[in-house]
Design brief:
With about 425 residues, this protein is α/β, with parallel strands linked by helices. The chain has 2 domains: about 230 residues, 3-Layer(aba) Sandwich (Rossmann fold); about 130 residues, Four Helix Bundle (Hemerythrin (Met), subunit A) (Up-down Bundle). Helix content is about 60%, strand content about 10%. The strands form 2 sheets. A 7-stranded parallel beta sheet has the order 3-2-1-4-5-6-9, with helices on both faces. The protein has a two-stranded parallel sheet with strand order 7-8. It is globular, with a radius of gyration of 23 Å. About 5% of the residues have low confidence.
Length: about 425
Amino acid sequence: MLIDNAQISRTALQNKVAVVTGAGQGIGRETARILTHLGAAVVIAEINETTGHATEQIIRANGGQALFVHTDIADVASMERMRAQAITTFGKVDILINNAEAVVFKAVIDHTIEEWDRVFAVNLRSVLIGVKLFLPEMLQRKSGVIITMQSAEGMPYLSAYLASKVGLRSLALSLAAEVGDENGVSVYCFGPGMVDTPSAQKAARELGPLYHMTPEEFIRSSAPGGKMTTAEVCATGLVGTILFAPDFHGQGDAHYLYGLGKLELDVDGEPIRSPETVVETPLTFASSHSSLDVVPLNRKMEEVVRGNQKEYESLSMFQKPVIKRMFQQGTGLKVEEWIARAEAMTRALETGTTTAQMRADYIQLVQRMIAYITKQESDARGWIKDPKQLDIALAVLVERKAIAQELMDVLMEGEKNVTS
């Protein structure tokens, strides 16, 4: 399993009990497998008996503890029965992962009220039920994790689904604020990205024609780099956030890449070298550069990101959320957050108030920006068929990458002087 690439003990979650809704397939199943691989017991709260039993059997065959409970998470009585079986079997519940979902692919005006209510009952109301059932005991023990799952917003033919997902983000933020920071319970909203699951494949088949695309074209235009993340990679990132849950408490977009980063794994779940510790020392430069050189260079970096922002605003209603999400996944921040971070770095450089941690974090962001622009170059060659348009796009990207690379070189030179 990919989790074995991380320096995590196989008993890291021993004596922990997790409820994973919708664990019959996809992200839910992979998350349940990884949790039990690390010693946790898992309750599979799933409405589909066939897939629910299958997940239970897979886990038990590998020596893990799992209990499938047939559950309609939108029904209070069904959830109460599931909780009772979980407590009877394992004694408690430490982790609640609200993964199950319902979706209808229709225009807003074509939704029936019953369809709309069912989507909200499964996606949003069920979380309230779970919170009321499990949070009180978590607070008593001063230990627990509650996770909701977000998605994009504003895409056509997904109104009920995405509106409920936005609600899940807001609910997590509200609940985290109410729980507070001193009660030992972490609450946050997880961002899975676009993951290759049976549900995502169904979405591609049904949404593709509505967007006048084949399912393959829909995936290529929606997923970063035209390729979906695997369910295991995403679930590994999710478990990474659970292992470091206090660090994610109160976040509205705890992206799977952040969880992988905590595990020191890359975007494919492979090990990465840990960054060296940076000493809190003023940033200095060799004679070829000075701190004043970096300020105009970083302002150019600001303009690079603003250029992306302007391009996104010109996109269609369908393209805009997809491309902005690709930017966030590729660079680690939303475009607006990236601009704010760059502006803050400019101010700190001007006043000489940068810290080692601030510089280390910013260097990592610039590194990700370079990688993202490199990927944009590859994507442009695959997407833009007109040779003239391709040349124009590549020229812009080459210039942006040159600015980012020069900034990176100067920042790294300064860090070498600090540590030498």
